[in-house]
Amino acid sequence: xxxxxxxxxxxxxxxxxxxxxxxxxxxxxxxxxxxxxxxxxxxxxxxxxxxxxxxxxxxxxxxxxxxxxxxxxxxxxxxxxxxxxxxxxxxxxxxxxxxxxxxxxxxxxxxxxxxxxxxxxxxxxxxxxxxxxxxxxxxxxxxxxxxxxxxxxxxxxxxxxxxxxxxxxxxxxxxxxxxxxxxxxxxxxxxxxxxxxxxxxxxxxxxxxxxxxxxxxxxxxxxxxxxxxxxxxxxxxxxxxxxxxxxxxxxxxxxxxxxxxxxxxxxxxxxxxxxxxxxxxxxxxxxxxxxxxxxxxxxxxxxxxxxxxxxxxxxxxxxxxxxxxxxxxxxxxxxxxxxxxxxxxxxxxxxxxxxxxxxxxxxxxxxxxxxxxxxxxxxxxxxxxxxxxxxxxxxxxxxxx
Length: 401
What we know:
Elements lengths: L2 H19 L15 H48 L7 H21 L5 H18 L6 H29 L6 H21 L6 E6 L22 E5 L4 H11 L1 H21 L18 H32 L9 H7 L3 H23 L5 H7 L2 H13 L9
């Protein structure tokens, strides 16, 4: 039995009682019978607007998966490395695989956005992305983990494009502050997720003499050799980084349920109304209003500015979390962790905080500026901060092993 036939039977079963109990097509939109026709139209417009705002909030929650995938890798990179028992140089394919997956996900979502139910597409993408994050810390092979990070980038690209396409179809206006509002969720979750990760990171327990056969429970490698001596070994507590991935996956359960519900509900309404497809599957943006010249500019802006520049900034923040910066006070990860977090973690949080402030600012300015200008401003603070960190802060030369 094909998927479409299964969906048709679900729609028929769900809607059978609706057609028997209600004479109207959509009871939620039906105004009282004693109300005039203009008032009925006003009532329906108000209900439709409330439904759009409700879906906008669910889109914002869903877009948080993009921020989770952006912010979780840096703080958890050292703990993932210790699970694999490899050095940092062997972790490099993770960044490449995640970036390639993101680009492929964006392309796939763009090609299928006109040919598939977007609510179902988004629900499946969120489900796959959350399930994939659960399995990442459970793997003990660098090749398998690279595959999972490729899938993470793929689902991140799918969710990124699908959420924006749905938002554009719900609110096809020139300014479209709603689209900017949706993107704020990614910057917010990327800023907050390190606070979750730090609770389950491996922490220093102290130092022991470097004997030929140290005790088994103490033979846990240090994240950094910057403060170790040849005669001492810094031992670390066991890592529970998998709990951070489980929590971030559980955060996405409500929007997964919501968009599968929208898929069945909207399909039910389309079946009762006699339409072949629902409103979300119809391109409401007039092609004549957006000629190829503007599309070409948007594609160039996406692939020559958004993906490479933001990808470089994101990879830089993740690596900076692990390598840290050199300080004249010679702070170690353990010493700064006792105060607030380690220095590299604070820098990572500072980067994503600037990303959040930029997104919030561009959302506010979208009321007054064009989409392209507000889109450009969303990268100003992260780019400036990365430039400052790159040229004015010396990088720590003691690489973690």
